[in-house]
Amino acid sequence: METIQSVKQRFEIIGNDAKLNRAIEKAIQVAPTDISVLVTGESGVGKENIPRIIHALSHRKHNKYIAVNCGAIPEGTIDSELFGHEKGAFTGATATRSGYFEVADGGTIFLDEVGELPLPTQVRLLRVLENGEFMKVGSSQIQKTNVRIVAATNVNMATAIEKGRFREDLYYRLSTVEIGLPALRERGEDIHLLFRKFASDFAQKYKMRTIRLDHEAVGLLLKYHWGGNIRQLRNITEQLSVLEQKREIGYQKLKEYLPHVGSHLPAIIPSRKETSDFSSEREILYKVLFDMQKDLNDLKKLTLELMNSGNTTKVKAEQAQLIKQIYASEEQTTALATLDDEYEQDPQAHDVELIDFEDSHDSTSDKYHFAEDIEEEESLSLHDKELELIRKSLEKYDGKRKEAAQELGISERTLYRKIKQFNL
Question: Residue 169 and residue 147: Cα distance in Å, rounded?
Fold first, then answer.
């Protein structure tokens, strides 16, 4: 059985970090089996090395190994790329084409950035994982394939599942074994080792002396955030090798090549703030609706007190804060003051208007009904709004839970739970 050190030498992996060694060890252990593997880690940490190790140490090593970048293939053609298509299946399909799963039969497929797969393709992939079956685009004939799948992603899968962007059942099939690679900033002294390796490689490539870092520059190298991980470190090393005349690089010179160096010292792992989605927009809509409801209830309350007392001056004094909220603009405040002046000049006119209103209705019952309307408005709750939104969405899509869930911005499982909860 291969050792961690021999695998590092074979695949030119630099570093002695404990997390890196553990990831390589797990790859060695799962390689002889056919179970699916999910490799996780930030962009640029070297996730592509793990599937190469697994394939090379497996019984499939003499068959094909195909790496597919799922994020780089347009959504409209990815099914054709993976599963193939029949002639005439769509515009431009002038001949029958074999997909990667057919070509790599007996070998290994590496699905990089698997979290970017569209939902319809995820369903097809799940079928391949479950029973090794697939159909070409435009065909009704079921084909068999014996492919080992290794996937990788830098997406937070728990968040993607919660938002309905990735199927939970597919995630569990892909991640029978999960191998996580650490970010470069977590690998301590490995950063300088990698820099020296890259510097040596570029010196040979461009036929020049190898660049070196002084003590202070090494300290900066270790403290920097390295958001782009190994890919960024390699890029910086190549720039220094090509552009700098002096072969010894100091702190200030290295700092010039590191973007936003001040904001990334000391190195920390940032908390990722999720972008706004439909759920947050819905919460904002609820808040606006509730604010409008509160303003309407306040206006009804003020009107009811005016009807009961008939004394504008008294009501204005007692409800000054409420009036200020309702009549925010100067024009509205002036109108209220004018109403008060008119009352003081001719109070009888306003009394008559109130009496006429009361004479044309059942005075007592109307006041009670008006108060009941206010209480009914105030009884509206988030439960009612949520129920109404779910019902409308289900009606819009004729009861199809998948489309309704996407419209509402929730997972299909969450919608199913709500349907049972509300007895819809």
Answer: 19
